[in-house]
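anyone seen this seq b4? input:
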Amino acid sequence: MFDMQGKKGLVVGIANENSIAWGCTKVFHESGADLLITYLNEKARPYVEPLSVAVSADMFMPLDVTQPDQLEAVFKAIASNWKQLDFVLHSIAFAPIADLHGRVVDSSEEGFLLAMNISCHSFIRMARHAEALMSNGGSLLTMSYYGSEKVVPNYGIMGPVKATLEASVRYMAVELGEKNIRVNAISPGPVATRAASGIAEFNKLLETSREKAPLRSATKLGDIGNLAAFLASDASGGITGGVHYVDSGYNLLGY
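predicted toks r here
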């Protein structure tokens, strides 16, 4: 547990109780943070709203990052109600199925740009809005994956997209460092989420990770949440610009 009493954070990416963002949110709440939780659309709302209630979220708002007015509305609400922001968790990614399941060289321009917009540039836009609200410093967190560094079967265009996200983390960390705003990426091992179900043969990827990872275990939501809370809290005050693995050590292997 980390002391996050009085910290105010924005959580983007909860789809249901199996979401990585939900695993992080539970630890944020247990650590004392006040939260604004977003949901994608009205279809998603019934799955996310009970979770928002369970952690006594201060605010609960829609956010589709392809709609600029919604992102602006979220940050206006933060400025109006909280006057400050201490951390952001960005845990969203998307690629059209046809592009995700095909070869990178065959990906459509439209699909690639959409994947880049939702999975990467939305984090940059959030940072831009958050900067003005982090007058006392803050922490910006996003979610990556090992497929950004090595070729993972069936990960497709998300590999290059996540690589861009990680490069953005490094540049943003330098640009925002003088304001004591830290920027980090978390790279979990495979987790059975709704988003992951779109990856072909995901169960095989999950089983391989379990069998070969040094700790011989699957990645747990609680472990991801603990790392996120550490990086969002003052306990990690000197850490920025990194990609932090929580994958039972799988990233250490060359096979």
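Residues 8-247 form a domain with the Rossmann fold fold (CATH 3.40.50.720). The mean pLDDT is 93. kinda curious what u guys think
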